[in-house]
C-alpha cells in the first residue's frame, strides 16, 4: 500500500485531493461517507439497504495487509470517496468496492481511487479485481470503461459480475495520461490564467521584490482583480491593500508570496484556510527548515497548487499576467519556458527579447515543492499559444513519467533542454563494464534522446536552435547544400556540417547545369557551391533558387560577405520565407552570434555570424525532424520467456542474502528470458572438472568463480583452449591453491567459434529505472569504449536506434546479423522491465557469428527494489 501520508492528486475540475491508505482510525470518516450517500447511491452501492453498516465500514477501514487494502480521497480533511479490496481464495484475485460522495461523482474521484487501489494491489501480486454491479449503475460501468484496463462483464440480468484485469497496457497508459492532462491543465489555470491575484508582501519600496511583482502585474495590464497584502498600508500603486490574507475582501485565485520565510509559511497556511487555489512562493530560505515543511503540509491539506519556493515567479504574457520580478516587459510569443534556475530564466528571456521572440508562458519552479516540468509538459500539449517548449531542469523528480510526457509533446512541438551536468543519480563505483558506461550524463542523455528532446549545452546554442525552429520549417532529411560567395566561408560551413551529423551530397547534374549557365567559369559547381565574389545579389538569388530546387537537398546554408557589387544576403529573406526547405544565413562579421534576417514582413530566417553555429542549430533540428518522422513502435511480444519463474528465482536469491549471483543462478535467470547462453557446467574440484571434460565438446574454456573477482581475465581466472583432461585438473588445482578461501568453483564451457564480441548490459537506478547498454565487447570494451544506451523498456524502434548508435555501427553490421543482436537487446530489456531487482547485468562477451550469437560470460547483481508506480497520478507535495 502507499505510505500513510499518501499523496495529493488533481481531479478533473482542477481541485486537489489527498489520496491515502485507510486505517482503523478512519472508521468514523468511512461511516460518515456512507451515511451521507443519498438513497439512490446507497441502493446502487449495496443493492438495497445494508444491514450492519457500522461493521462494513469498520472492515473497510481495517488494517492493511495481504488480503485487504483501502484508499480514501480527502478534500480538506473530509473523506469524499473510498475504494477497497478483499482477497478471499485465489491470492491473485480480489473483490473490489467503491463509494463516492454524490457531490463529487462527476469530478473523477472514483477513477482516481481505482488507479491508486489497482497500483497498490499489483504491488502485492493481485492481478484481477472482481465484483458485482447493478445493470442500472451506468456511472460505475462508465468508470470501468474509462479506466482503460481490460474488463469483462456478464451480459443480461439486473446484477452483472465483472472482472477487471490489472495488467496495464498502452490503452491504460494513454487513458491515464489524458486524465492527467485534463486535470493538470484545469489546476494550472489558477497559476497561469487566474481571475484574481493577491501579492502578499507588496511594498511601496522600489528595491523590494513585493514592489517589483505588483508593479509588473500593473504595468503588464493584468485584467483580473488585483489585491495587495501589507499590514502597514491601505493602498499601494492604486491597488487596495489588506493587512492580512484573512482580511482580503474576497478570495483570490492565485497568491504570490513575497515575505520572509517564517511569514511565508504562515501566509501559505492562511491562503489554504481561505480557499486560495494556488500560491507562487518567491521567498527563499524555506527548504530544509520547518517553514518549508509547513508550506508543504498546507498545500497538501488544503489542496493548493504550489510554485516554488525560491523562484522568480510566473508569467503568461498572452493573458497579461506577469507575476515575476523580471526586469522589463515579458513579450508574448510562441515559446513556453520552465526553469529551476531563476538566473537561466532571466538570461533566456533577455536573449529571446533581443531577437523579437516572445513567451507563451514562464514558470520558475525554484525548489520545486509541487509544480514541475512534468506539469508544464501537460499544459503545453494543447496550449495553442505554445509552439516550442524550453526546459532547464537540475533534477528529475519522476524521470520515467517525464520521458513519457516529453515524448508525447515532442511528437507535435519541439522540446529543448539544457544539459545541466550531474543529475540526482548517485555515482556508484564501477563494479562492471555496464556500470562504468552508465554515468549520470549517459542516463540523462538516453532519457532525452528517447523522448525526442533537443538537448543543448549552452544558452547561446539554445537560442540559436529556438530561432531556427521559430522562423524555418523542419527539414525532410539531413542533406545540406552550402552556397557562398566566399570560398573560405563555404569550406568552414561544410566542415561544420560534417561535425554535426549533416551530409553534403553532390548536387544533381541538372542543378549543376543551371548553375553553369549563371556563374563565371572559375565558380565551383560542387557542394559547397562557390559563386565567387564577382556575383551580385540578383545572380546569387538565382543560384540559391537552383540549389533549393534540387530534390536531393533538404536544407541550405547561405554564407555571404558584402562586396562592391552588392550584398548577396539581400536576396535570401524572400527565398527563405517562401521555401518549403529550411534556409539559414551566415553573415560573416555580424555583431550578434544570431540575429533575425528580416524583410518587410519581419523575421524570415536566422542569420549567424559563425558557420559552426548555423550547422549546430541545423543539426539539432534535422535530428529532431528524423526522430519525429519515425514511428515510436510498440514494445514487441517475445516468445520463450517465463517472467513468473524469474521473479520467484530472484526473490529466493534475495531471501538467501545473495547480491552478485553465482554462475548457475545467472544461467537459470537468463534462461527464463530465452537468452542464448553457452552450454555451461559448474564444478568445485578437479574430479568434477575431469568428469565434465568427458561430456563437453573440446576444446574447453575454464573460468574461475572467486569471491570478489568480477573481471576474471584481469585476475588470472580464465583458461582457454584446454584440450587435455590433465590440463583441466592442473588448472582447477592451481586455482584452488591460488585463491584459497575465496575459491567457490569453476565454470566449464566449450570454446565458441570466433566472431564479433559485443557487450549488452543493464544498469538500474531506483529513480530512472533500468538503462540498457550496448557496445563493443571483449578486449574492445575498455580500449575502444564504443557504446550506446537507452532506457528500458525498449520498443522495436528504440532497439534499432541502439544498434545504430555506435560510432562503428555502419561497419559492424556489414559482417554480422543485425536481427540476432536486436533480439538479445529486446530480451534483456524485458528482463530489466519485469525483474526490477536486477541492478546490474553484464553479457560480455556476446559473440556473434553468421546468423547466431551466444553469451560466453555473464554477471548479475540484484538488490531489493520497492515497487513504486512511476505513472501513478500524484503531485510532488
TrEMBL record:
Keywords associated with the record: Transferase
UniProt keyword Transport present: no
Domain of life: Bacteria
Gene3D superfamilies: 3.40.630.30, ATP-grasp fold, A domain (3.30.1490.20), ATP-grasp fold, B domain (3.30.470.20), NAD(P)-binding Rossmann-like Domain (3.40.50.720), Succinyl-CoA synthetase domains (3.40.50.261)
InterPro entries found in the cross-reference section: Acyl_CoA_acyltransferase (IPR016181), ATP_grasp_subdomain_1 (IPR013815), CoA-bd (IPR003781), GNAT_dom (IPR000182), Ligase_CoA_dom (IPR043938), NAD(P)-bd_dom_sf (IPR036291), Succ_CoA_lig_flav_dom (IPR032875), Succinyl-CoA_synth-like (IPR016102)
Pfam families associated with the record: Acetyltransf_1, ATP-grasp_5, CoA_binding_2, Ligase_CoA_2, Succ_CoA_lig
UniProt GO molecular function: acetate-CoA ligase (ADP-forming) activity; acyltransferase activity, transferring groups other than amino-acyl groups; ATP binding
Name listed for the protein in its UniProt record: GNAT family N-acetyltransferase
Amino acid at each position: 500500500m502507499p505510505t500513510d501520508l499518501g499523496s495529493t492528486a488533481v481531479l478533473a475540475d482542477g481541485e486537489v485531493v489527498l489520496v491515502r491508505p485507510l486505517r482503523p482510525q478512519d472508521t468514523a470518516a468511512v461511516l460518515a461517507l456512507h451515511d451521507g450517500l443519498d438513497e439512490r447511491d446507497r441502493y446502487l452501492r449495496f443493492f438495497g439497504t445494508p444491514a450492519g453498516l457500522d461493521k462494513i465500514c469498520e472492515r473497510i477501514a481495517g488494517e492493511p495487509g495481504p488480503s485487504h487494502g483501502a484508499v480514501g480521497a480527502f478534500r480538506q480533511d473530509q473523506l469524499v470517496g473510498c475504494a477497497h479490496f478483499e482477497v478471499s481464495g485465489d491470492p491473485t484475485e480480489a473483490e473490489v468496492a467503491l463509494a463516492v460522495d454524490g457531490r463529487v461523482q462527476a469530478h473523477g474521484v472514483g477513477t482516481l481511487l481505482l488507479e491508486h487501489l489497482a497500483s497498490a494491489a499489483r504491488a502485492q501480486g493481485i492481478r484481477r479485481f472482481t465484483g458485482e454491479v447493478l445493470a442500472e449503475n451506468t456511472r460505475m460501468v462508465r468508470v470501468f470503461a474509462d479506466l482503460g484496463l481490460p474488463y469483462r462483464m456478464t451480459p443480461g440480468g439486473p446484477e452483472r459480475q465483472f472482472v477487471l484485469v490489472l495488467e496495464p497496457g498502452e490503452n491504460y497508459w494513454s487513458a491515464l495520461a489524458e486524465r492527467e492532462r485534463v486535470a493538470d491543465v484545469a489546476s494550472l489555470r489558477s497559476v497561469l490564467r487566474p481571475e484574481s491575484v493577491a501579492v502578499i508582501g507588496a511594498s511601496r519600496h522600489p528595491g523590494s521584490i513585493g514592489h517589483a511583482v505588483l508593479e509588473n502585474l500593473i504595468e503588464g495590464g493584468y485584467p483580473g482583480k488585483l489585491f495587495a497584502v501589507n499590514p502597514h498600508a491601505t493602498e499601494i500603486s492604486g491597488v487596495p491593500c489588506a493587512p492580512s490574507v484573512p482580511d482580503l475582501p474576497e478570495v483570490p485565485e492565485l497568491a504570490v508570496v513575497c515575505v520572509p520565510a517564517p511569514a511565508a509559511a504562515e501566509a501559505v497556511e492562511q491562503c489554504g484556510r481561505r480557499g486560495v487555489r494556488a500560491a507562487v512562493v518567491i521567498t527563499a530560505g524555506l527548504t530544509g527548515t520547518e517553514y518549508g515543511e509547513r508550506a508543504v503540509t498546507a498545500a497538501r491539506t488544503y489542496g493548493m497548487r504550489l510554485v516554488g519556493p525560491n523562484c522568480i515567479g510566473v508569467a503568461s504574457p498572452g493573458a497579461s499576467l506577469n507575476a515575476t520580478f523580471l526586469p522589463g516587459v515579458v513579450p508574448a510569443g510562441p515559446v513556453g519556458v520552465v526553469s529551476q534556475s531563476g538566473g537561466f530564466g532571466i538570461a533566456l528571456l533577455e536573449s529571446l527579447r533581443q531577437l523579437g521572440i516572445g513567451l507563451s508562458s514562464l514558470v520558475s519552479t525554484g525548489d520545486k515543492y509541487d509544480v514541475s516540468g512534468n506539469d508544464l509538459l501537460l499544459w503545453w500539449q494543447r496550449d495553442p499559444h505554445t509552439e516550442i517548449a524550453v526546459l532547464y531542469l537540475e533534477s528529475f523528480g519522476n524521470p520515467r513519467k517525464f520521458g513519457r510526457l516529453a515524448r508525447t509533446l515532442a511528437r507535435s512541438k519541439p522540446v529543448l533542454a539544457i544539459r545541466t551536468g550531474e543529475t540526482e543519480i548517485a555515482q556508484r563505483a564501477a563494479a562492471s563494464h555496464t556500470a562504468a558506461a552508465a554515468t549520470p550524463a549517459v542516463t540523462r542523455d538516453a532519457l532525452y534522446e528517447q523522448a525526442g528532446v533537443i538537448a543543448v549545452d549552452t544558452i547561446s546554442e539554445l537560442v540559436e536552435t529556438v530561432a531556427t525552429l521559430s522562423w524555418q520549417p523542419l527539414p525532410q532529411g539531413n542533406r545540406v547544400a552550402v552556397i557562398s560567395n566566399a570560398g573560405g566561408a563555404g569550406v568552414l560551413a561544410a566542415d561544420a556540417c560534417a561535425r554535426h551529423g549533416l551530409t553534403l551530397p553532390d548536387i544533381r547534374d541538372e542543378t549543376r547545369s543551371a548553375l553553369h549557365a549563371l556563374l563565371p567559369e572559375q565558380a565551383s559547381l560542387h557542394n559547397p557551391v562557390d559563386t565567387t565574389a564577382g556575383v551580385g545579389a540578383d545572380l546569387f538569388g538565382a543560384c540559391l533558387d537552383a540549389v533549393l530546387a534540387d530534390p536531393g537537398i533538404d536544407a541550405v546554408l547561405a554564407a555571404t560577405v558584402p562586396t562592391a557589387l552588392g550584398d548577396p544576403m539581400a536576396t535570401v529573406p524572400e527565398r527563405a520565407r517562401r521555401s518549403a526547405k529550411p534556409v539559414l544565413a551566415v553573415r560573416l562579421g555580424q555583431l550578434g552570434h544570431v540575429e533575425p534576417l528580416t524583410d518587410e514582413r519581419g523575421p524570415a530566417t536566422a542569420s549567424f555570424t559563425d558557420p559552426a553555429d548555423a550547422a549546430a542549430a541545423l543539426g539539432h533540428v534535422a535530428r529532431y525532424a528524423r526522430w519525429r518522422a519515425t514511428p515510436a513502435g510498440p514494445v514487441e511480444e517475445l516468445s520463450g520467456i517465463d517472467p513468473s519463474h524469474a521473479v520467484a528465482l530472484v526473490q529466493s536469491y534475495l531471501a538467501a542474502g545473495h547480491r552478485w549471483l553465482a554462475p548457475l543462478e545467472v544461467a537459470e535467470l537468463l534462461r527464463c528470458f530465452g537468452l542464448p547462453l553457452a552450454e555451461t557446467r559448474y564444478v568445485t574440484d578437479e574430479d568434477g572438472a575431469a568428469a565434465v571434460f568427458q561430456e563437453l565438446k573440446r576444446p574447453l574454456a575454464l573460468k574461475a568463480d572467486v569471491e570478489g573477482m568480477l573481471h576474471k581475465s584481469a585476475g588470472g581466472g580464465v583458461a582457454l583452449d584446454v584440450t587435455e583432461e590433465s590440463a583441466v585438473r592442473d588448472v582447477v588445482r592451481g586455482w584452488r591453491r591460488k585463491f584459497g578461501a575465496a575459491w567457490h568453483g569453476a565454470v566449464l564451457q566449450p570454446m565458441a567459434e570466433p566472431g564479433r564480441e559485443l557487450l549488452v548490459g543493464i544498469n538500474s537506478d531506483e529513480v530512472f529505472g533500468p538503462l540498457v547498454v550496448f557496445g563493443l565487447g571483449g578486449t574492445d570494451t575498455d580500449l575502444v569504449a564504443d557504446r550506446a544506451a537507452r532506457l528500458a523498456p525498449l520498443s522495436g524502434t528504440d532497439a534499432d536506434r541502439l544498434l545504430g548508435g555506435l560510432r562503428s555501427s555502419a561497419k559492424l553490421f556489414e559482417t554480422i546479423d543485425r536481427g540476432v543482436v536486436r533480439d538479445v537487446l529486446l530480451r534483456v530489456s524485458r528482463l530489466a522491465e519485469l525483474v526490477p531487482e536486477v541492478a546490474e547485468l553484464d553479457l560480455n562477451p556476446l559473440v556473434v557469428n553468421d546468423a547466431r550469437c551466444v553469451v560466453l560470460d555473464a554477471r548479475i547483481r540484484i538488490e531489493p527494489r520497492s515497487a513504486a508506480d512511476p505513472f501513478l497520478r500524484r503531485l510532488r507535495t
